[in-house]
Every structure is written in C-alpha cells, then in structure tokens.
Amino acid sequence: MAESLLDKVKALPFEVRQYMLITGNYWAFTVTDGALRMLVVMYFHQLGYSPLEIAMLFLFYEAFGVVTNLVGGWLGARLGLNRTMNVGLGLQIVALAMLMVPASMLTVVWVMAAQALSGIAKDLNKMSAKSAVKVLVPATSANANSALYRWVAMLTGSKNALKGLGFFVGGVLLTLIGFRGAVIAMAVMLAVVLLLSLWRLKGDLGKQKVKPKFTEIFSKSRAINVLSAARFCLFASRDVWFVVALPVFLYDQHGWSHWTVGGLLATWIIGYGGVQTQAPKLTALLKGDARTITAGWAAALAVLAILLALLPLAQVGWLVVGLLAFGVLFAVNSSWHSYLIVHYARADGVSMDVGFYYMANAMGRLVGTLLSGWLYMAYGLSACLWVAAALVAASAVMALALPKQVA
After folding, report:
1. 373 contacts: CB under 8 Å, gap ≥ 6
2. Model pLDDT for residues 39-84, shown as the tens digit of each residue
3. Whose CA is closest to 396, among 327, 298, 326?
4. What does pLDDT average to over the chain?
5. Are 231 and 361 within 8 A, CB to CB?
6. DSSP readout, 95-139?
7. Under 8 Å between Cβ of 368 and 235
8. Sequential DSSP letters for 129-179
9. How confident is the model at residue 54, as a pLDDT?
10. CA-to-CA dists, residue 156 to 162, 184, 329, 332, 335, angstroms
C-alpha cells in the first residue's frame, strides 16, 4: 500500500508535488507559531508581566510582519516562492534559539527581538504558500474560480486548525517540560523540516518573468486596496480580545490552568480552521455579488460581537459558547477574504498583490494585539468586545466599496 501511495504521489504533476511540499512546510511552521504564541503569553504572565507588557512582547512580531509582507512579496516575485519559504523556516529556528537562553536573560527587549524574527519568518511562509495557489490552479483545473476558492479554503482552514493544535501543544509543553524545553523541541523539529525542504523543494514557483521594481510593491488596484482595508479591521477585531485579554481573563478571573486555557484556544482555532474548509458551501447560502457577500457576512459577525459584549462575563460558559460562535462567522469571513485576494491578484506577480494584502492583515493584528493588552488592563474584557464589534462593523461598511462582479 505504501508503494501504491508513493507511486500516486510521483504520478502527480511537478507543480502539484512542489505545492504539497510547500504546504507541508507551512503546516509544520504553523504548529510552532501557535505553540510559541501560547508559551510566551502564559510563561511571561506567570513571571508577573502585566497584560500590556505581554502585548508589547508581540509588538515587533506584528510590526515586522507589516514590512515583511510588502518586501516578501517583492522578493518572492524576483527569487521564487521556494526560496522565501526556506528563508522563513531558517529564521524561525533562529528565533527559537534566541529563547533558549536562561530565564534571567529573557528581558523584554530580547524577547521582542526574537518575536521580530518570528514575525518575519511567519509572514514569509504564509505569503509563499498563499501565493502558490494562484500559480498552481490554472495548471491543474479548467474551472478557475470555484477550484481556486476550494484550494484557498482548504489551505487556509488546515493551517488554522494546525495553529490551534499549536496553542494546545504550547500549553502542554509548558506544563510538562517548561519554557526552555519546549522551545528546544520545536527548534529541532523545524530543523528537520528545513533540511527536507532544502533537499526536495525545487523550481522557481511564482518567480515573475520580468523582475519587478521595488517601487511596485504598493497595489494600484482599487479592489485590492478596499479588501485590504476591510481585512485590517477584520483581524484587529479578533485579536483585540483573543491574543492577550481572553487567556489572561480566564487564568486570572476564573482560575483556569495553562493547559486548559491553551486547550480552549486550540479548540477555537481548530474549529475555526475546520469551518474555513467548508466556507465555499457556507458563502453560497448568501446570494449576490462579491460586494453583497462580503458585507453581509461581516454584518452578521458585527451583530454577534455586540451580543457578546452585552453578556455578563461572570457566566463563563455562555462567554465560551459565544466566542465559539464568533469563531464560526469569523472563519467564513476570513476564508472568503482569502479567496478574493487570490482572485483579484495578478497572475504574473501574484506574490506582490498577496503580500500587500497580508501587510494590511499584519497591521490589523498589530493594532489588535496592542489594544488587547491596553484595553483589558484599563477597562476589562467587555471593552475589548465592544471595540471588536465596532471594527467588524467598519469592515462591513468598507466592503460596500468592492466591485459588484461575481467572484
């Protein structure tokens, strides 16, 4: 049976086999990214850091992601997506190695620097994987739009499910082998993946025929600019309560353990990823053009966010149920957005359009992360949820400026 499966893989087109390698690399990286996020939040809260100080640890992670998506898209167009993927894997290993030092050396500045490298690494990987879909689908399917949506939904959903697994892994590793042991284990795993990638990942997937100028990194497409602005608000609305406020709230106010908090966040993201894989079926429930579908799903999420903000936070059971429901609607919005950017992107130079879009995504996460720490410390979780509702509502309004054509 093993030989039969291997023969089937070998029979696949070269481009598909290359994309499978890229996806596998992306998955492995994603597990470590989610685990590291949980490790940093819970370990440094345990050391006595305030919610705002913990949020500041992720400042460079998100800020450098903004720059990386712009420059990374340009590099991917010039050098090939396989090379940007390998650079991302290597940088994540360096970032993990920086955190292997004794606890006395884990100062705020040092951890922020390590998180900066991790942010660069993560966005190089994501940009490479998402851009590869646009290059791959025309070579494997004559049914352009529906096939493209399915491929994007599967990639995005599986990635987020694995990131959720990473949250759980981070909480468990912190409990079982401590912060330093967990970081070492993840670095070893990624080193193996990088060696495999350097050995088997070949070709210049996504390399633009005419090398683009650096001045071309900013999008000139109105549709991409509008979608990027809506994406900024969408992801800021999630991270304003999810990154710092929720785990600290559950740990402090309800006495949850590290692994229990990690388990809830893992369940949220795994379920979120699972819903994303089914997004093509769910978005079909709302008939209309791209503008109507985008604004409609965002409006539904905004209404739910308002209901969450009105919940009594002492009823943690209802809060958890509401946040899981938020995850379902957020997943549909996110997957639909991910499809639209790949659909709107140019075939030649796709990584530059995708990179610009995910720059806005990173900026939204940056703002959301900082607000998560500050708002929670100053006003509590309820304020974070109200701001989330306002941000989603803004995303819905922006979507009204998208082109009307069916995507």
Report:
1. 50, 51, 52, 53, 54, 55, 56, 243, 244, 245
2. 888 788 777 877 777 777 777 777 787 778 777 666 766 676 778 8
3. 298
4. 79
5. yes
6. HHHHTTS-GGG--HHHHHHHHHHHHHHHHHHHHHHHHHHHHHHHH
7. yes
8. HHHHHHHHHHHH-S-HHHHHHHHHHHHHHHHHHHHHHHHHHHHHHHHHTHH
9. 78
10. 10, 27, 15, 11, 7
Greatest CA span in the chain, whole angstroms? 60
What is the residue whose two structure tokens read 């900024």? Answer: 232
Give one DSSP letter per residue of 353-398, joined into a string.
HHHHHHHHHHHHHHHHHHHHHHHHHHH-HHHHHHHHHHHHHHHHHH
Residue bearing tokens 């990473």: 166
Residue 84 identity: T
Query: Rg of the Cα trace of the chain?
Result: 20
Residue at token pair 């070949």: 202
- The dihedral built from the CA positions of residue 308, 312, 314 and 315, taken in this order, carries a sign that is negative
Tracing tokens 């959301």 back to the chain, one arrives at: 368
Q: What amino acid occupies position 213?
A: K
Q: Taking the model in full, what pTM does it have?
A: 0.72
Task: Work out the angle at residue 309's Cα, subtended by the Cα atoms of residues 303 and 314, and round it to the nearest 5 degrees.
Answer: 140
Q: Cα–Cα distance between 358 and 352 in angstroms, integer? A: 10
Residue in the structure block whose two tokens are 């149920």:
321
Q: Angle at CA 223, nearest 5°, toward 163 and 80?
A: 55
Q: What is the DSSP letter of 217?
A: G
CA distance 86 to 309: 42
